[in-house]
Amino acid sequence: MHKPFSTGLVWFRRDLRVADNTALFHALKNCNKVQCVFVFDTGILNELPRKDRRVAFIQASLVELDQLLRQAAQEAGLDAKAAAQVGLIVLHGNPIQEVSHLAKQIEAQAVFANHDDEPAALARDAQVRGALANAGIALHTYKDHVVFERQEVLTLAGNPYTVFTPYKNAWLKKVQPQDLAPHPIAEHAAALAPRPTARQLPVPSLPDIDFEEVDLTALHYKTGVSGGQALLEDFLHRIDRYEETRNFPAVKGPSYLSVHLRFGTVSVRQLAQEAWRRYKTSEGASVWLSELIWRDFYAQILANFPHVAERSFKAEYDAIQWDHGPHGKALFAAWCEGRTGYPLVDAAMAQINQTGYMHNRLRMVVASFLTKDLGVDWRWGEKYFAQHLIDFDLSANNGGWQWASSSGCDAQPYFRIFNPVTQSEKFDPQGKFIKRYLPQLAGLEGADIHAPWDAKPLALQAAGITLGKDYPLPVVNHAEAREKTLERYAVVKKKAA
Fold first, then answer.
1. What pLDDT was estimated at residue 343?
2. Do 41 and 67 meet the contact criterion of CB atoms below 8 Å apart?
3. Is 360 a catalytic residue?
4. Predicted pLDDT of residue 1
5. What are the φ/ψ torsions at residue 12 (nearest 5 degrees)?
6. Which residues, at least 6 apart from 329, have a Cβ–Cβ distance to it below 8 Å?
7. Is 288 noted as a catalytic residue in this protein?
8. Rounded to the nearest 5 degrees, what angle is found at the Cα of 218, between the Cα atoms of 217 and 224?
9. Based on the domain organization, do 473 and 325 belong to the same domain?
10. Strands of the sheet with 88-93, listed across from one edge
11. H/E element holding 332?
């Protein structure tokens, strides 16, 4: 079969796998020889702390990706010597220069990559496209990290959806088996070509790119494609109970696949297919499928309404006066450091600070607490999560924060305010999660673990706790804060009127 290009270059970004990779599939199908590259983007890396869990996750996943490319070439029938020279070219620099330079060097006619609709990524890709075009090289990009993207699911009027439930219904109506079918890489993998001799280098270590080592195994992270598949396999044994268990942070309820979705070490099509084939017979699978659809929903919101990255989705919410002064900064610091005096909030913040992960229910609780109990700007919290979450994804993170502050795509009225004590009693009834991350409260029992300030002096004494010394007193009174929030949000009504 005649192929239109003699040489192609696949640029891996948030898709660190060989199997069911759309850009890789199209490159292999359309090029006689295919090279693969990943660029550690110094523009992004220079802003990060030298010890960063995400960079460590990416580096470990690249080592496996490099091996998987060689394996695919070998299984496709390349002789042992040629297959051993196949692999990933890993560069460290500005991708605009690095990708175009490499493409010219290997005499590629086309570069293949998967979409990334974050505003900074779109700006970068436009510049790469221009640099490649100047050299007569095409850039082909494809949908890969969601099932439906951009304007694939529209209202009858032809507009993007802005409320989740109608979007979900339209998504379920639209989806067909072919939307979830994997791309057959193996049958085309013989096009994987040996790297140029000077490029046959191992994946750089973390110190090679000026980062410190991170022990991800101590944090129980499974990296790479093998890690994603192991987690999926484990979760599929539990998927039917997902709805019953997903809200309880002390219970093994979630799939824990969010970081793998973020970096593409699993295919979203594979996950959606697993959920879709079960969703009519399993409540757990149905709810999990909804979570995957939420991910698509927020991705298309960012693509169609890019202003959300900086401002409220609903413009009238930008009129809210957040506490930006010294008092607000002090409250924000207490929130970041897990010393608000509300155990569930503080335990959740200890979890993200220690591990880089936070349970989804707790993300809602702490976000509501920051915006509606402390009166602090949701963008401060969004930025903190962006710095600390190993699974940080701009569209999902922004969507979650705007949901919590009621400024986003939410049909609910603005006055939804989570009570942190009620949430604690409901979702961590025995305080197991709290005690795991706040061992100083381990001696408290019953209702006291959720609201230590209400505990009897004898109970505190028996637990060895002096409030204000061993554990902080609450920084706000929830009932009073609720009233202030209703006053703060009243401006929205006036603005909308």
1. 98
2. no
3. yes
4. 72
5. -75, 140
6. none
7. no
8. 20
9. yes
10. 88-93, 31-41, 5-12, 110-114, 138-142
11. helix 326-336
- Host domain of residue 38: 1-143
Residue 419, CB-side half-sphere exposure with 13 Å CA sphere? 9
Under DSSP, the state recorded for 8 is E
What's the CA gap between 402 and 409, in Å, rounded? 8
Are 152 and 104 found together in one domain? no
**Tally of structural domains, the chain:** 3
pLDDT for the residue 29: 98
Q: Residue 433: what pLDDT? A: 98
Q: Active-site residue 453, yes or no?
A: no
CATH code: domain of residue 74: 3.40.50.620
Task: Write down the catalytic residue from 149, 291, 316, 425.
Answer: 291
Q: What is the pLDDT of residue 495?
A: 59
Active site residue 118: no
- At residue 384's C-alpha, the angle toward residues 378 and 386, to 5°, is 100
> From CA 25, how far away is CA 18, in angstroms rounded?
9
> Torsion angle of alpha carbons 99, 102, 103, 106, nearest 10°?
-160
User: Which pLDDT score is estimated for 218?
Assistant: 85
| From 149, 322, 419, 425, the catalytic residue | 322
Q: Is 244 an active-site residue?
A: no
Exposure string of 104-120, with b = 16+ CB inside 10 Å and e = fewer, is bebebbbbbbbbbbbee
| 469 domain-assigned | yes
Catalytic residue among 94, 304, 360, 419: 360
Strand partners, 113: 141
Cut 0.90: pTM above it: yes
- Structure-token match 């505190």, residue found: 460
Residues 6+ apart with CB under 8 A from 323: 331, 374, 375, 376
User: Is 403 an annotated catalytic residue?
Assistant: no
Backbone angles phi, psi at 139, to 5 degrees: -115, 115
Q: Please give the structure tokens belonging to residue 58.
A: 């990416």
Does 255 lie in the same domain as 367? no
Residue 353 DSSP SS3? helix
Q: Which residues of the chain have pLDDT under 70?
A: 411-415, 494-497
Nearest of 232, 279, 284 to residue 258 by alpha carbon = 232
Here the tokens at position 468 are 């204000």
Which of 171, 288, 401, 403 is labelled catalytic? 401
Q: Which of 335, 378, 380, 403 is catalytic?
A: 378
The dihedrals phi and psi of 417, each to the nearest 5 degrees, come to -130, 120
Tell me, what's the pLDDT at 492?
Answer: 85
Identified catalytic residue from 94, 283, 294, 419:
294
Cβ contacts of residue 439 below 8 Å, gap of 6+? none
Q: What would the pLDDT profile of 295-352 be if each residue is shown by its tens digit?
A: 999 999 999 999 999 999 988 899 999 999 999 999 999 999 999 999 999 999 999 9
